[in-house]
Design brief:
By secondary structure, the protein is mainly α. It has one domain: Orthogonal Bundle (Tetracycline Repressor, domain 2), CATH 1.10.357. Helices cover 76% and strands 0% of the residues. The chain has 9 helices and no strands.
Amino acid sequence: MARPREFDEVQAMDSAVETFRMKGYEAASLMDLLGSMKLSKSSLYNSFGTKHELFLSAIDHYAIKFADDLAKQIETAPSIKEGVRRAFDVVVESSTSDMDKRGCLLMNSALEVLPQDEMAARRIAEGVGRIRKVFLNLIISGQARGELSQDRDVEGLADFITMNYMGLRAVGRVYPERGRLNSLVDQTVAAIS
């Protein structure tokens, strides 16, 4: 009979996400992961598989939580522009207050492991797709309220907003300057019409 797990899998996965955000996939050692997750090697392997399997699961975990949090940030926005501003303002705030410069696991991983890791590339693309879907839903709702003409390319606008959002996360890691980041937010919001 298998022993019951004596740890919180979600908490352990949150710790793995933070380790990968701080160090990246290659630099995160097995000892780093075991230490942050507070697991033995056998518990890690039995619950999460190899380091690579853990990394893929961490990308999924991060993307799902990230997209859910993003949807909550903008769900009550009275307009597309306000929803985008709310989402982007959170990026500005996190970029200017993240002294460890952890950045976004999706962006960090895309820059580190693509194109040599096709499995991770697929997971990262799915994660960015989740974020895009949140923005697409915001746009469709706004279009239904009459904010955009019915012939507006909502798919293209969702791509535009997502690209700027992910770009802002990357720029915020390099230039965590509130004025510069707010200017980028203002330009993105102004381009939505």
